[in-house]
Design goal:
alpha/beta, five-stranded parallel sheet, 14% strand, binds phosphoric acid mono(formamide)ester
């Protein structure tokens, strides 16, 4: 693995999942792998889970992790080629990234989309410019369109949950990605990425449900069954992944915010006692009800705790590739 930007960087998902679960069983088994290596964690946007879990993962491999909150502490970066920098940006990425490439062995970056211009966001300019100019492996900590460390975690969590069942289901698990209401327009990253990974994994019956006009980009969802009927989608589900996203076609908007789309215990009755997942943070009683989050079917805490093992497996694969 050279970079980790999307599922396309992963030659074998199952192998990476097993690697992560092996780290969960024995976190310090590769403590010497990253000795004298350093990772830079660059945040252009807020984070709790991604920041902490990636730091812990690096430390479990013996790496030093340095966090740099570019949004608060850094110079405003310019990403456009040939920009005339007479506005608010102070330093071009083609000047900053090569320096970071000399300070660090791996660079990890979080950059959210602006949600103003779809073409700009979906070009993934920011992360591509870091890859172009840093000259070292780059890991996405969530980019404009994808959140691959979250999605790897989600597959790990689903696989682990299935393995822990008293009897593994004879059928492929039914995984449902359901849209949920929210008060703000949110990126499509988590939903895009989850769809891309579940499709690439190929071990589930995959259904996506959302209100009309919330279609995601087909490049990520192709292969899934898509329906606007949430009850129909939830029928017999083994896993329900709850997430809000803003509109893709008429970009970055909220159309419907129908509270009926919030997952409740009544809706849970339609499922096969489904496990409920969410990447967090979650708006309680807007996206997901208290009764679900505090109930026995929620696996959101174990899901978030598995972020460490996903990050550790990815960093380890990159270190081994480059050693
Ligand atoms: N799920 C996730 O990426 O959480 P943070 O935004 O807190 O990192």
């Amino acid at each position: 693995m050279i970079n980790f930007i999307s599922v396309k960087d992963v030659p074998d998902i199952d192998k990476l999942v097993l690697k992560a679960l092996a780290y969960k069983a024995n976190p310090f088994k590769d403590l010497s792998l990253g000795v004298n290596k350093r990772i830079g964690l660059l945040f252009l946007n807020p984070s709790m889970r991604t920041r902490l879990s990636t730091q812990i993962a690096a430390q479990n491999l013996g790496m030093e992790a340095i966090v740099f909150n570019v949004d608060k502490d850094g110079w405003a970066l310019e990403f456009e080629e040939e920009a005339i920098m007479s506005g608010s940006t102070v330093e071009h990425v083609k000047d900053a990234a090569p320096i970071m490439g000399r300070y660090f062995d791996i660079l990890a970056i979080r950059t959210f989309p602006g949600l103003k211009n779809r073409e700009d966001d979906y070009s993934e300019l920011y992360i591509k410019q870091f890859i172009k100019y840093a000259g070292i492996p780059v890991v996405s900590l969530e980019s404009a369109t994808l959140h691959p460390l979250q999605s790897l975690t989600d597959i790990i969590t689903i696989q682990e949950t299935i393995t822990q069942m008293p009897a593994e289901p004879a059928h492929k698990p039914k995984i449902v990605l359901t849209w949920a209401p929210h008060v703000k327009p949110l990126p499509q990253c988590v939903a895009n990425s989850f769809s891309q990974w579940v499709n690439a994994w190929g071990k589930a019956e995959f259904v996506i449900t959302h209100p009309e006009d919330y279609e995601l980009d087909e490049q990520f969802t192709k292969g899934a069954i898509i329906t606007h009927n949430q009850d129909e989608a939830l029928a017999g589900a083994d896993f329900v992944y709850v997430k809000n996203w803003s509109t893709f076609h008429d970009y970055g908007r909220i159309y419907c915010n129908d509270p009926e789309w919030m997952m409740t215990n009544e809706k849970l009755e339609l499922t096969n006692a489904a496990k409920i997942m969410h990447c967090l943070p979650v708006r309680r009683n807007v996206e997901l009800s208290d009764e679900i989050l505090d109930g026995p079917n929620s696996i959101v805490t174990v899901e978030a705790s598995n972020r460490v093992w996903a990050a550790q497996a990815v960093l380890s694969a990159i270190l081994k590739q480059n050693s």
